[in-house]
Amino acid sequence: MSKIKHSLKWALFDSIQRCKKLTTFKKIHAQLITSGAVSNDFVVNRVVEFFAKGPNFVDYACDFLSEYDWKVSSFPFNALVSGYAIGDSPKTAFLVYRRIVKDGFLPDMFTFPAVLKSCAKFVGIGYVRAGLFDEAVGLFLRMDVEPNAATFVSVLVACGRKGYLSVGKGIHGLSFKSAFGVGLEVSNALMDMYVKCGCLPGAKQIKSFMKSTVNTHSSYNHNSVQLESIKNY
């Protein structure tokens, strides 16, 4: 019987790693509780990795961790905050941080770096929304934090508004070396930056990576290059 339970636990571990939907995870979670494996450190770590995949799981993630004693190990809590901070959800990192602190968690030396990373990303976005484009570009060039998609988009908007083509090209190269460079949002931002800076060859280069031509045509038309847009049909 113990061998069967052991096999079940490992099957559940594998299911967590392949799980992509919260509804499916809840079923696995119930089986983990029934099998007594929910308190296993390996399980907790895999669960945290699952939650960090998307901001829609925040409430459930915090409820899950509320059953875990952070005094035993702060790793799951810090891993969850870090997962959101280095990904595409800096706001979610803040929400999780506030929630777990409210529930009694005491931050440590590993918690604050993740929170500060979120701060850096938020400030850059805030500068762009406030029209402080020079400040946004300057912060991006100074910050020692791996950018996410939102950060790339914001600084590319700033480059386009100020005509900073050389900086924009540098960000182009950096974005395509990251996991976010092939995303539609970043590609659209690159396209817009090149067009606003009057660099149509750069815009054409980005076009080959884009899945949709709708934004391409509107961008060209915005810059009075209707002929080029018509040729693309």
Helix vs. strand class: mainly alpha
Mean pLDDT across every amino acid position: 70
Q: What is the string of helix and strand elements?
A: HHHHHHHHHHHHHH
Number of domains: 2
Q: Shape, please?
A: elongated
What is the rounded Rg? Answer: 22 Å
Note the main sheet.
none
Question: Which percent band covers the strand fraction?
Answer: under 5%
Distance between the termini: 66 Å
Q: Bin the helical content.
A: over 70%
The total of beta strands comes to: 0
Number of helices: 14
Segments where pLDDT lies below 50 for 5+ residues?
Answer: 212-217, 223-227, 229-233
In words, what does this structure look like?
The chain is mostly helical and 233 residues long. The chain has 2 domains: 1-109; 131-233. The protein is built from 14 helices and no strands. It has helices at residues 2-18, 22-35, 41-51, 58-66, 75-86, 90-102, 111-129, 133-142, 149-162, 165-177, 184-196, 200-207, 214-222, 226-231. It is elongated, with a radius of gyration of 22 Å. PPR repeats lie at residues 73-107. This is Pentatricopeptide repeat-containing protein. It comes from Salix udensis.
